[in-house]
Prior knowledge:
With 581 residues, the chain is of the alpha/beta class. It is built from 19 helices and twelve strands. α5 (113-155) packs antiparallel against α6 and α18 packs across α19.
Amino acid sequence: MKRILKTLWETLKPYKKLTILTLVLIVAQIGADLAIPRLIQQIIDQGVRQGNLTIVLQTSGLMLGLSAISCALAVASSLTSVRVSEGVGRDLRKQFFMKIQGFSYGNLDNYSTGQLMVRISSDVSAMQRLVHMAVRMGAKGPLMMVGSVVMMFLTAPQLAIWVVPVMLLAMGVVVYFSLRMEPAFRAVQEKLDRLNTVLQENIAGAELIKSFDRADFEEARFGKSNQAFTTSSVRVMQFMAAMDPFLTFAVNLAIVLIIWVGGLESIGGNLSTGKLVAFVNYMLATQVPLIFMINLSNNWANGMASGKRVCDALDEQPKIVQADPSQSFSGRNLDACTMENVSFAYHDNLATKVLEDINLETAPGQIVAILGATGAGKSTLVNLIPRFYDPTSGQVAVNGIDLRQADLSSLQARIGVVPQESILFSGSIRDNLRYGRPSATDAEVEQAAKAAQIHAFIQSLPQGYDTYIEERGVNLSGGQKQRMSIARALVVKPDYLILDDSTSAVDVETEANIQDAIRQMMRGKTIFMVAQRISTVLNADKILVLDQGKIAAEGNHKTLMATSRIYREIFESQLGNGVDL
Length: 581
């Protein structure tokens, strides 16, 4: 709880003046509201009972004026509190988004897309509502309660002593319900995580679901998650619903006691009618703070549950830490890349190493190909080069500098990566191709597109490079998205180009043309090429054959055909026996 409150307090600091103004407006409104029952007492005791019309009219006019002032103060405090809460929500979303941007691949492995979406939307909104309720009702409720109790003692202390025990009981109920609801709200948010994950997977995989006719299965899977979320929500709502009737009963019980005891006092001449009416009004005024506190307790429980989830993510330390900026690659070319005794395991689970004892050395101008079966560790190996992950043991170095001691931004700025999954953003083709280097000229963009064999297709579109790409690139084929991704990486003019099985969706002839063009553009630079098709790697200077996370063989095509059984089997299974290239 302390961490959550600290986060909210730090986020509230820029809105300190607005928060103070809101509190001042609320205090002024409470003062106006608490004065009205006393004015009612004056009308009854000094006006009606004594037949003084002047007092009745003057006091009534004063009451109307105070009511108008109270209304204006309520509107003003609402406007300022909304500005505070909305600002806090915006700042929390920005803070969370920037935290995600700082996550490494290892951090992102700990969260599903659905979990992050719920945290930045639903969970932050719950914290925002908590701030809004705390600034307004969190201040107004207790102040109104204390003020009403004080005024009751000033008006009729003999009646007030009957009210205090009931109020203490009601406060205890609010605290009890608040403590019980926080874990319940957290369970609801966790169920919402799962629901959003299933929904996101279904939207992203809609074509696959249709192609396999699995709509019924997915409907059942979604229904299960939806029902779990509904069940948790119903449980919380039922629990919350029990609090309001109990508090209403407590207030009504207090009113009955007041009327009974106060009536006897009034009949005995110890209490005026005006005081009794004023006291009842103060008693009724305590019901408003109780309702405020019910709403606040609900929002408190929900906000604390969501706040814990948000703060857990905000507190997570990036697994890739920015090192000494003095070891920068700015203004320097990336030359030799070496790996010494490198091993890697996801989540540091050494029992299931993905890579083990990898030793590699490359030189500028080389094409280094990585070949192997699915799950052999090919993508993991190339992900160590831009330092998306750090090795579990061993060292990855560029220009003789251990990447853990190098400036991360200057390293990644000189590496072009084409991932397995071609990801494009909604926007124009030109903006997508310039994504890694916004300052690239139109000529540079077109040169990269020509190398990726996508320029002619773009030119055939009615709007050319200004053509709008839909979300996830749904208006492009798989091969077109891959070639766009290659062009985007080439626009960066990288020293290292990493192609992670990036031509799997294009035909062999187009692939050969792409490779020829890339060699020309990347002359003197290093290309790392992950491939499933052996035809992709035949002309590589160095081919690594991975088998179960280890380098089973290394060399060029001719050397491996003579020395590696695994490589020869792959070659013969794909290109046939007796083919010599």
